[in-house]
Amino acid sequence: MSPTLSTALISSGDRAPLIARGVTRILGGRAVLRDVDLIVPAGARVGLIGENGAGKSTLLRLLAGVDEPDAGEIVRPARLGWLPQEVPFDSGMPVSSILDTADAPLLALERTIEATAALLGTDPGVDAAYSAALDEAERVELWSRHARRDALLDAFGVAGIPFATPLGEISGGQRSRLALAALLLSCPEALVLDEPSNHLDDRAVDALREQLLGWRGPVLLASHDRALLDEVATELVDLDPSRRAATGENGGGQAVRYGGGFSDYLAERERERQRWQRQHGLEQRELSRLRGEVAVGARAIDTGGRPPRDNDKFIRHFKGARVEAEVARRVRDAERRLAELEAAQVAPPPEPLRFAGLPPGTAALEGDDPLVALESAAVDRRLAPVTLALRAGDRMLVTGPNGSGKSTLLAVLAASIPLDAGRRTAKPRLRVGVLAQDTRLAEPHRTPRELYERALGAGRAAAVPLASLGLLGPRDLDRPVGVLSVGQQRRVELALVLGRPPHLLLLDEPTNHLSLRLATELEDALGTHPGAVVVASHDRWLRRRWSGTVLALGG
């Protein structure tokens, strides 16, 4: 059988499940995860979602065996494939080193077959080992692995990189795509993937989707890619610590399962929140009634809340101790019900962290001329000639395959790289804000509040406080950015750009690493910005909703 992408992923072994039981992880004195239970059976493709900082990457690292839990148990298949959100690398090592690491278990299997074949007939145990090795070789398509490697590298857009190229000389996106191709080539028994579609163009995402849909072992992936989740997820798990306060369901309440894709999750999450609000409202009304009953006491019970009439006084005196005993019993019952309900009451639904939108502060520049214009602007081997003009209020989405020059175009618009041909013109005093594709906070010891004030100045930071943007929770404003998650660091970078909204806002893959809710809120907020906005993105969900101009590079 000729190797194809659709047959490349055949899992090995007995396809054991991936399990977390009562897992707790303490980082920096804070419980990032507490009593998390999660089972991913063979054949399931579970999407892990949640707000930035909720612990998604922490849980994935525990399941992959990179870190150890502070409490609880992890059960995983013997050969597990792990793709981190940011791939570690030695800049001096060649590209081939990544592929050689992936090929190692397959080479070991090949050697086992050769060794046992030479001893066939000498021992029944050797014959059984040889047969098992052949079965394994069939499952992982051992003898077509080189053709599968070439197909995967081509699908992920890295086939043209010479194997001798040092890893430090290729982009972070290329390294991530190489690592993903190598991981799939190794055919592990289970996949644990942290943002696998970052840096993937449409063709590469199609290849990844095909791989995941054909996977027979357990798959757990954390992803911001709403379209991919709709297409491949058999269920979603929302890693939300607020659930513990609400219900305590699903193994401690922090990992809540939803069947179906992202669109189904949105609808069910909204229904769940409405049920939560209704239950909390009913309980609060009952608590108020019981507190009133206890406070009013015997007179409210005996007289119904009205002042006692002369006849009431006579009856109370006549009945004497028997009436007082009944009143005392009813008050005690109300006090008991009140204590029970106060102890078991559902907490109010926490207000989610919501992006407040772009703050004011973009003063219009005089004149009707474009903010920036390019005339046949080109950069050798990076950007084919482009002609465009952007005015205040313009919205442009830049699309195209990897390598077509999207990031280069944004750099040209920002005047951060020189042109090899053509011309760029811009209005005087044009203020440009750039959100780069990769996270680049150079001072990990600084807090978000410190970085924000240094970038904007004390006056602007006081006028538009970082907390008012709704990008970071109060507890994260004064923590070193180095201890924040990648998604939270991305939020800090976004705050540095948006704290003083520029005339020209350039966003390179803005939804990478951001939570699904924030990605949607950011997309909606861009429509209200009085300046021009240019977005370069592979995000298919964003592209489907886009209502502005679209510039397709690379054909």
UniProtKB/TrEMBL annotation:
Residues 18-266, 365-555 form the ABC transporter domain. Pfam families: ABC_tran. Keywords: ATP-binding, Nucleotide-binding, Repeat. InterPro entries: AAA+_ATPase (IPR003593), ABC_transporter-like_ATP-bd (IPR003439), ABC_transporter-like_CS (IPR017871), ABCF (IPR050611), P-loop_NTPase (IPR027417). Coiled coil: none annotated. Gene3D superfamilies: P-loop containing nucleotide triphosphate hydrolases. This is ATP-binding cassette domain-containing protein. It comes from Microcella humidisoli.
